[in-house]
Amino acid sequence: MTENEIAKMIIKAAIEVHKVLGPGLLESAYQQCLVHKLNSFGFNVEKEKPMPLIFEQVKLDCGYRMDILVEQKVVVEVKSVDALNDIHLVQTLTYLKL
């Protein structure tokens, strides 16, 4: 399955979760439900996947964690906000670089 096909299924699952739960919950609640839904689709899903930071050839455990990693291909950053800001995009792009 390609990254785009996986992404379409993730979006479908996220919409289903949001339709059932509605707005106003913590990110952790949406994350747990989304992980459950993606598992039910048969995906290999890792929650709170540790992501080390490499600085000057030294691998540092700084506590960074990806919210969800699907099939070792697609990073999902769960947000429970009124609107996305530039910092949210920057955060995700930084994860991809690291």
Q: What's the short story on this structure?
A:
The longest helix is centred in the N-terminal third of the chain and has 19 residues, at 3-21. The chain is 46% helix and 21% strand. It is globular.
Written description of the protein model:
This protein is of the alpha+beta class. The protein contains three helices and five strands. A three-stranded antiparallel β-sheet has the order 1-4-5, with helices on both faces. α1 (3-21) packs across α2 (27-40). It is globular.
Map the helices and strands.
Elements: H1 3-21, H2 27-40, E1 45-50, E2 53-55, E3 58-60, E4 65-70, E5 74-76, H3 86-97
Helix pairs in contact: 1-2
Distance between the termini: 24 Å
Share of β-strand residues: 15-25%
- Determine the oligomeric state from the structure: single chain
H-E order: HHEEEEEH
Widest sheet, order of strands: 1-4-5
Number of strands: 5
| Secondary-structure class | alpha+beta
Helix content: 40-55%
| Unreliable stretches | none
List the defining traits of the structure above:
98 residues; alpha+beta; two-stranded antiparallel ribbon; 5 strands; 46% helix; globular
